[in-house]
Amino acid sequence: MVHHIVMWKFKPEVEDAKKPELKKAMAENLKSLVGKVPGLLTVDFVEAPLASSTHDMALVTTLEKAEDVAVYAKHPEHVKVADTYVRPYTTERAALDYEEYPHSVAVARYAALIRIKSPTNWDSQLTKSLFQTRSSSLPA
Predict the structure, then answer these.
(1) Residues 93/7, Cβ–Cβ less than 8 Å
(2) How far apart are CA 36 and CA 76, in angstroms?
(3) What's this model's pTM, rounded to 2 decimal places?
(4) Tens digits of residue pLDDT in 18-53
(5) HEC string of the chain?
(6) What count of other Cβ atoms lies within 10 Å of the Cβ of residue 138?
(7) I need a surface site. Which of 26, 36, 78, 102 has the fewest CB within 10 A?
């Protein structure tokens, strides 16, 4: 799986009072692309980032494979949504695409949990646990 993340800032001329309505329209229309764009599995839209954020909103998508990012970018439905609901109001676009390796997020979360519970030997506990998990999934 591949994740495609895009962040934007509103253009300076966009009035604060209009921003919630514009974010809602962006979210609804970008989410509607699931099922229309081949390879697009999920769409999440961050409308209320923390105050520490550098951008006003973000799109977080999941696609089947790396090649699907280009398909998504050029798909007529995506272009229509972007040209109508996003590009006229945004600036300073930042994008990040990355491939998710199987269980990578789960392992990272599990490692953090083990580190909290066993701060002195968390790395050996994680290795032992991963070995047991992998060994149990191998055919006898």
Answers:
(1) yes
(2) 10
(3) 0.73
(4) 999 999 999 999 999 999 999 999 999 999 999 999
(5) CEEEEEEEEECCCCCHHHHHHHHHHHHHHHHCCCCCCCCEEEEEEECCCCCCCCCCEEEEEEECCCHHHHHHHHCHHHHHHHHHHHCCCEEEEEEEEEECCCCHHHHHHHHHHHHHHCCCCHHHHHHHHHHHHHHHHCCC
(6) 6
(7) 102
